[in-house]
Specification:
about 325 residues, Rossmann fold, 12 helices, single chain
C-alpha cells in the first residue's frame, strides 16, 4: 500500500507497470516529473486513496468509484478504452481520460500470426512428442492459400491483414466502417463460412460483448482456428470450450480474457476462482490445441519504447493543458 499522505507528492502514479516498462517510462519522464510506480493493480496495491491526482493504469485495475471526485485525470496505457467509458458512466463524473491508440499495432499483429501458425502446425504436440521422436498425429497445415478473416480492421487489424497477405493467405476483413481500399471487406455472415483462421481485433463496445459466441462460431468450417488478441469480453470462454470439446474448433488462442482482472489477480496469488468463465479458461489451458498468453501481445522492446514515449507525451500535455493528446472517443 502506498504511504503517500499528500496527494500532490506524485505528479503521476503508474499502476500495472512491469519492470521493463517502468524503466522505459523513467527514461522518458526525466527528473522534472515526480512519478510513482507499481507492477500491481489498484486492488492488489490496496490503496484507499489515489496516490496522485493523475493516475495511469492498463486494463486490469478496478478504480474505486469515490476516487473520481479526487482525480484530475486517468491515462490508460492501452489501445482499448471501454473500461474508462464504463468508469465515467458508473461515477457520473466527466473526468479527462486518455489512451494510447498507436503504439502496439505491429507487435499485436505479429503475435496473432505467431499464434495461428503455431496452432496450424500443432507445435505444442510436436514439442511434447520429441521425447519419443514420434510423428503420429502431428500433420499440420501450411497457411498459404488458407482464408484468414480479420474481424475489426483498425490499426491492429490492418497490420494483421498485411501480414496475412505476405504469407500468401486469402485475406478477408469485417468492419462496420471500412476505410482501406486494399482490404476485401465482407459481411460476417459470409466470412465466417469461408474462414480457416479468424483473428478478433475489434474494439469492445456495449453492443458487441460476446460477439464470438457459440451460434456464430458453429457456422464456421470444422477445424477453424480462432485467435483473440483484442478484448476478452468479445469471445465467450464457455462457448469456446464447448466448441473445442465438440471438435468443431481445430484450435484457439487467447491473449485476453473475460473476467481478466479477477483471473489475473487470482493466478498471481496462486489461487483459483469459482467464476464460470475463469474455470473454462483454466480447463482450456489443459488442451494442447489451445494457447493462452498473459495479455502480452503488445510486449516487444519496440512497442514498450513507443508506449513509454507516448505515455509521457500524454502526461506532459495533460500537466500543461489539463487535456490529453489522445482523448478517449465519445460514444
Amino acid at each position: 500500500m502506498s504511504q503517500m499522505k499528500d496527494d500532490k507528492f506524485f505528479d503521476v502514479y503508474f499502476y500495472e507497470a512491469f519492470e521493463e516498462e517502468a524503466a522505459a517510462l523513467k527514461r522518458f519522464l526525466g527528473a522534472e516529473i515526480k512519478a510513482g510506480f507499481t507492477w500491481k493493480t489498484i486492488q492488489e496495491q490496496g490503496d484507499l486513496n489515489p496516490p496522485a491526482k493523475l493516475i495511469s493504469i492498463r486494463t486490469q485495475s478496478v478504480i474505486p468509484p469515490d476516487w473520481a471526485k479526487t482525480l484530475s485525470g486517468i491515462l490508460s496505457r492501452s489501445t482499448g478504452y471501454n473500461h474508462l467509458i464504463d468508469y465515467k458512466q458508473q461515477t457520473g463524473i466527466e473526468l479527462p481520460c486518455g489512451y494510447l491508440p498507436l503504439y502496439c499495432h505491429r507487435s499485436v499483429a505479429e503475435q496473432a500470426m505467431l499464434l495461428w501458425m503455431t496452432l496450424l502446425r500443432k507445435l505444442a504436440r510436436q514439442i511434447k512428442q520429441f521425447a519419443q521422436f514420434k510423428r503420429d498425429g502431428l500433420t499440420g497445415f501450411e497457411c498459404q492459400n488458407k482464408t484468414l478473416l480479420v474481424v475489426g480492421v483498425g490499426n491492429i487489424g490492418y497490420e494483421t491483414v498485411k501480414i496475412g497477405k505476405g504469407l500468401g493467405m486469402n485475406v478477408l476483413g469485417v468492419d462496420i466502417a471500412p476505410k482501406h481500399d486494399d482490404v476485401n471487406y465482407v459481411k460476417i455472415s459470409d466470412g465466417i463460412k469461408q474462414a480457416d483462421v479468424i483473428v478478433c481485433a475489434m474494439n469492445l463496445t456495449k453492443d458487441n460483448v460476446k460477439y464470438f459466441n457459440y451460434d456464430l462460431l458453429k457456422k464456421s468450417k470444422q477445424g477453424l482456428i480462432f485467435i483473440n488478441v483484442a478484448r476478452g469480453e468479445l469471445s465467450s470462454p464457455l462457448d469456446l470450450l464447448r466448441l473445442l470439446d465438440e471438435q468443431h474448433l481445430g484450435g484457439a488462442a487467447l491473449d485476453v480474457f473475460d473476467n481478466e482482472s479477477e483471473m489475473a489477480v487470482a493466478l498471481r496469488k496462486g489461487q483459483t476462482s469459482d467464476e464460470p468463465n475463469v474455470q473454462a479458461v483454466l480447463k482450456m489451458a489443459e488442451y494442447d490445441n489451445v494457447i493462452l498468453t498473459p495479455h502480452n501481445a503488445f510486449n516487444t522492446a519496440e512497442s514498450v519504447e513507443r508506449k513509454s514515449e507516448q505515455s509521457v507525451q500524454q502526461i506532459d500535455q495533460f500537466i500543461a493543458t489539463n487535456k490529453f493528446l489522445w482523448d478517449i472517443p465519445a460514444e
